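Q: What structure does this chain adopt?
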Amino acid sequence: MMNMGEIIHSTQRRRGRRGPQRFFDDISLRVLCVLCASAVISGCADLAPKYDVPAVDTPVAFKEGQGSWIRAAPADALSRGPWWALFEDPVLDGLVSQVAVTNQNVAAAAAAYAQARALTREQRAPLFPAVDLGSSANRSGAGGGGGAHGSYQVNIGASWEPDVWGRIANTVASARGNEQASAADLAAATLSAQGELAVDYFGLREADLLHASQAETVKGYERSLTITRNRYNVGVAARTDVLQAESQLATAQADLIALERTRAQFEHGIAVLIGKAPADFTLAADANWRPRVPGIPLELPSTLLQRRPDIAAAERRVYAANARIGVERAGYYPDIRLSASAGLAAAHIGDLFKSSSLVWSLGATLAQTIFDAGATSARVDEARAGMEEAAARYRQTVLSAFEDVENQLVALRVLQQQVSLRQQAFDAAVLVEQQVLNRYRSGLVSYTEVVTAQATSASARRALVQVQNDREVAAVSLIQALGGGWKGMQ
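A:
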């Protein structure tokens, strides 16, 4: 840095009794004039490019749905409402409501947001003068009877860098953009944890239903084994029929135990999501639980996509990167700094507060870099590239959001059809199982046909429960893809 000019005016005057008052009046007037002049020129230049939300080519309608798109823009502050209430499950309501309070990932995101807010306040502070208060006392002397000399000083000073080129303002704008992005990250973390909990809860309830169904299957296999043993004992069935029945029963019992493990894992996952140790959380089984998939509106307004917090976060980071360009561009221009100080200085502490001890100074410094081997230009280019990167990430986030919505719409459409077909397959398999077992009792078919029919029925029952769970998971995923649900939207 090369000092282009410096003006420092300092004086020490002896005055009468009104000297201190005149002194402070004089100083106040001078400082006021300097600050007012600086305030006029401060902020008159903004070197950041004009900000526009990056354009994204959007389809006019959902491929897998109905309705029209409008250009995506962050609107994550729209009221979402408790989307999980759409599933009409009081237990789920109670669990999801705890996520924002006790989930540790959400707590970490909240802390990161608090840090971002504090950083914004820190970056805003240089817009105002910095005031210092200091004092010193020194005593010095030399040998040979030269005596000792003292010096005492009390002073108050202020310094300020007028934001002529908008460097500080753009730094604040960049910090504020990152703060808003952090707030959106917090919303995204909360929504993600809530969705994960809902998926785990539905998985646990699916395990409950499968466990109840498998328990019925085990009972049926036990009855079949009893029938087979009775027929073997009277000599109308082969030993192989008994062995087949015993093998089938043991396999079903092993599958029943495996479901207990699956359910326990989902329960442990839920405990962690609500901030509890698995040992401190238990969720009672409910064999009578029934899935409820909320109805999907025929038309999903594209404004719902604007509520995605990840889109909002990506857009705010573009804004922050754009402001950063203005910060780096300010390096092409000189730094201006104003300073003022007033104090009392005396050789004896008793004279410190006399009017003759008053000392004051006003100063202005102008410094300009004339050669830095292209460092400033490189920083500007880096900031521009950072803005382009953030814009590309924003566009990719929007495109991924389109993909998420389309995927879940097609999933719900297909799964709804599958539920109907799986139900038909299960009903038919149950009838076949009953008929084949009756024919076996009458000696008309071999036990191998019984085993096949029972296995088909059990498989159809599991497939039906699985596809019902898949529908609920797809509904949760669609709600997340839409940024938190469609309740209350027009």
